[in-house]
Amino acid sequence: MKRTTLLTAVLLLSLPVLAWAAEPPAAPPAPPAAQPAPAIPRDTKPVTPPAVENAAGAIPAPADVAAPPADAQTTASGLASKVLKPGTGTAHPGPTDTVKVDYTGWTTDGKMFDSSISRGKPAVLPLDKVISGWGEGLQLMVKGETRRLWIPVALAYGGRAGKPQGALVFDVTLLDIVGPPPPALADVAAPPADAQRTSSGLISKVLTPGTGTRHPKATSIVKVHYTGWTTDGKMFDSSHSRGVPANFNLQKVIPGWTEGIQLMTEGESRRIWVPEKLAYRGQHGFPQGTLVFDVELLEIVKE
């Protein structure tokens, strides 16, 4: 399943610099007006940023961009690194953790090709979906640390056309360790007998009662954390993996979300089984069939 074309693109796969997989697919065409909007409003999707090269305001390359200094640490794989600023944490990311980082990358001739700092927005990246030099290098770090990585071509893009060539150099600051993606649910294939059913066919179950008394309206804007799975247990989207809650206008989401979120109160967590007729109705490029969401309603931003 093409995760980048689903509810929201996982940020890593939308970045041209770090993804090791095949080139990310183009965004799907907008669905016809008569069909439901995606669960995540189209205007909240991350836009694929262009790589920055020789641009005005480019961040200058470090003096040692061409080769690591003698006091750099080198691992058995050939990855070299040097701590520029010690971290404040003690835990290291795991190989499947998602991390929040600021970074800048250069080729060894000093040309900057990408930078979250230039874009003014940190990146949230799963370490099992990045070039292997990043996956290895970030696991050496702790929260708050800034480290320079010299990544040999074998641990970068291996000469792939359209990608930065040769050895690459990155300055990376580890801002946060988000953690691994949520596991699949035991009852993802079918709702339990004690789940609530509405006349539309929507099924849900309260996981954690709310602390508020207000319910959103069909026109409300809400702040939520959520994860979505298909009924075969495959996760296709998660705000937890990105480490950032999402704001949604309930008029611009799939009908199952519009109905299901209105059942909730602030602070509540609920599992929602959304039948296909209340989800994407078989639209090409979107999750198929019945979908299952765990949703935590953090705030009713606007009624």
Number of strands: 14
Q: How many helix segments?
A: 5
CATH architecture of the largest domain: Roll
Shape: elongated
Strand content: 25-35%
User: How far from one another are the termini?
Assistant: 35 Å
Which residues sit in consecutive blocks of at least 5 with pLDDT less than 50? 1-17, 19-56
And the CATH topology of the largest domain? Chitinase A, domain 3
Residue share in helix: under 10%
Mean pLDDT across the residues is: 83
Structural class: mainly beta
Number of domains: 2
Quickly name the level 1 CATH class of the largest domain.
Alpha Beta
Multimer state: single chain
Largest beta-sheet characterization: 7 strands, antiparallel
**Spatial extent as radius of gyration:** 21 Å
Short description:
The chain is mostly beta strands and 303 residues long. It has two domains: 73-179, Chitinase A, domain 3 (Roll), CATH 3.10.50.40; 182-302, Roll (Chitinase A, domain 3), CATH 3.10.50.40. The chain contains five helices and 14 strands.
